[in-house]
Amino acid sequence: MLYKERPSYTCSKCHKTFALEPRANSLRLHDARFLRVATKLTDNGRLKVTESQLWFALSRRTLGSVRGPRSGVPSAIGCLAFGLPVGGGLGVAGVAIGGEGYILTVLGALLLVGAFVAAVGNVRDGRKRYDTLPLSPFREQALARWKFAYGELPPGIVDDAVLHRTARPEQPRAALLCPDLAVASFLAANGIPRRYGVEIATTVQALPDDVPVVVLHDAGAVGSVRVLATRDALPGRRVVDAGLRPRVVMKAPGAVVAHGTAPQPEVVARLRTAGALTPEELFWLLDGWWSPLVGVRPATLLKAVSAVLERVTGPGGDPDRRKAEALGFLTWPDAGAA
Predict the structure, then answer these.
(1) Could you give the 3-state DSSP secondary structure of residue 199?
(2) Is residue 212 part of a domain?
(3) β-sheet with 213-215: strand ranges across
């Protein structure tokens, strides 16, 4: 249907109102794609998924993969590879000819300047793809419009604050620390507290006393340090690093990654001293890469968290596994689907 045939969010043929105009939102969304992705993500409404998780699923193709980042460096090299020799050659030829040859010198100089400007522009454009992961425009441009047109979001989509409305177990068997409210709400909405007797908190201060603590975090320097800080704050408590580990993301095609500023040297030094990360992971973090926990596919995330909680809340305990937990060596099932 042509743009002129759907004025004011209304189909000119059936006269029905629709929610999303591709030209009016940054993701170029239309109703069919929005509903298709939401239906697949929630398994036809059987799985509860938060608004933030839906945003990442819809944005996945534009956020790129750690295996193939959309860097502007190759394009910049191409600009320089052409501009430097050609511009330099024209400049040298103009000087050698003399007289009217100054025109060649000027053209060569302009070409050199243009090559440098284009190279810098390509590098900056490549980095812009990773600097921000905006969510507010999505809520304003897509979710609000969908609710206006259809009255409610597709089955299974819940808001990011479900955790605040979830009952806490009276006698928790363990605690789950997850600073990301959207992920914490996702786990609460899918019955994790009731199934495992786990209390979910977003801060260390809100954790219950005298129970093991499982820490969920982004695959980044800040998230990795948070595990160490939690152990410092809870001496003598069992603290399990459940991920997201950088190496899980580094090996997962299609994983959502972002590029930001490099972590502070003292942060890297602490992670290196702790010995929980490999040299490859440290190098990845030092380069400014990270991956948000909320970007993990919901079904994979729920499966991974459930597996960890079954081990933590289950009877007995393997001493070797306890040692691995202390070092943060727990791995996620089906890592390639992260």
Answers:
(1) strand
(2) yes
(3) 198-201, 174-177, 213-215, 239-241
Indicate the pTM of the whole model. 0.72
**Phi and psi, residue 137, nearest 5°:** -60, -30
Number of domains composing the chain: 3
Range of the domain at 213: 160-337
Indicate if 242 and 318 belong to the same structural domain: yes
Provide CB contacts within 8 A for 223, sequence distance 6+.
217, 244, 290, 293
CA distance readout (Å), 256 to 30, 97, 133, 209, 291: 22, 55, 10, 35, 6
User: What integer pLDDT is reported at residue 333 of this predicted model?
Assistant: 45
CA distance 104 to 89: 9
Find all residues with CB under 8 Å of 171, minimum gap 6, and list them.
Answer: 197
Residues 6+ apart with CB under 8 A from 36: none
**Candidate from 4-13, 85-94, 107-116, 238-247 with smallest mean pLDDT:** 4-13
Half-sphere exposure of 338 (CA within 13 A, CB side): 29
Report yes or no on 13 lying in a domain: yes
Q: What beta strand segments (E) does 253-328 contain?
A: 258-259, 289-290
* 97 and 223 part of one domain: no
Give yes or no for a contact between 255 and 249, defined as CB atoms under 8 angstroms apart.
yes
Which CATH number goes with the domain that contains 226?
Answer: 3.40.1360
Residues written for the chain:
338
Taking 90 as the threshold, does the pLDDT of residue 80 lie above it? Answer: no
User: Domain check: are 257 and 311 in the same one?
Assistant: yes
Structure tokens belonging to residue 272: 């290196």
